[in-house]
Amino acid sequence: MAFDWHGGTITRDTPIGDDYRSTQKVRRFMCEQCGAAFRFDRPFMAWIRSGAPRTMGEVVDEWKRLNG
Fold first, then answer.
1. Per-residue DSSP letter, 65
2. Predicted confidence band at 1 (pLDDT cuts at 50, 70, 90)?
3. 17, 2 in Cβ contact below 8 A?
4. DSSP string of 14-61, one letter each residue
5. Are 39 and 63 in contact (CB under 8 A)?
6. Distance CA 18, CA 27 (A)
7. How many CB atoms lie within 10 A of CB 29?
8. 41-57 pLDDT, tens digit each
9. What single-letter DSSP state applies at residue 6?
10. pLDDT tens digits along 12-25
């Protein structure tokens, strides 16, 4: 079953699959986890869609590693 990226509750354990969408809700989650400096850029978005991260927690951790 596909996750509702617009209405579902996003946590660090939320799995990322082929249905991933970069919604306002995802951006809010990332800002909450990473701070006000969070921004998506094309290489980071491509990495998310590459299948490398399996959860939103891994996405948060990678952004912090790259921008920390």
1. H
2. confident
3. yes
4. -B--TT----HHHHHHHHHHH-TT----HHHHHHHHTT---BHHHHHH
5. no
6. 18
7. 20
8. 999 999 999 999 999 99
9. T
10. 999 999 999 999 99
User: Tokens 């939103």 belong to which residue?
Assistant: 56
Q: What region does 51 belong to: left with phi over 0, alpha with psi -120 to 50, or beta?
A: left
pLDDT at site 32: 98
Return the amino acid letter for 39: R
Place of tokens 């921008």: 67
CB-based contact 26:10 (threshold 8 Å)? yes
Sole residue written with tokens 């579902």: 8
pTM for this entry: 0.92
The one-letter amino acid code at 16 reads I
